[in-house]
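Much of what follows relies on a compact textual record of a protein's fold. A record is reproduced here so that you can trace the correspondence yourselves:

. . .
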Amino acid sequence: MISYRDLLKDRKIFYYIERADYFLKNMGYTYHGIKHVVWVASRARMILDRLNYPEREVELAGIAGLLHDIGNIVSRHDHAQAGALLAYQLLKDKNLLTEEDLTDLMYAIGNHESATGVPVTPIAAAVVIADKSHVSRNRVRKDSNIKEDIHDRVNFSIFYSDIEVNPDKKTIKLVLKMDTSISDILEFFSIFKERMEMCRRASRVLDCKFRIKINRKDL
């Protein structure tokens, strides 16, 4: 079974990820490059591994996490669906995955966006939770104006973010540390409410409850 780390060695895949981020940068979006997709891939993989899912699904979650944003080389609009088709073509040519693997990957990538996604498989659910949980000042561009852009301001206020999975209590928890002198919890939920709700739905697919902790306080 190949892993997302194997795919990082592929120059074409690496280029697609970085090129997608180049277009997003010029559109004014936060960072979506290699560091972001590796973060998502590793956390998606970790979620299923901690919940004792089969190795196949664990590795496919990592691959879907790595490739989930490549559709931005086509358009920001419907980039999830475009990315699913691109990923299929890129991976099918390698002859390393079965058709079942490929269709599971397409579904996970094609359903990671909060506006259109319906994550009903463990792989898709893990990718959603990992992607929507990656809030970090490291994703804010250097030329951003955090005073005027609420999305960048909230991201910049987060100096630590990670996901904790407790298989015994069946909880998946987003843990954040926030500088409340830059932004506050109300602003966080004003822009991330829809994404956190999607994480809650995705967690139910994994038979877990989704929780959030900000500055050591469970919400």
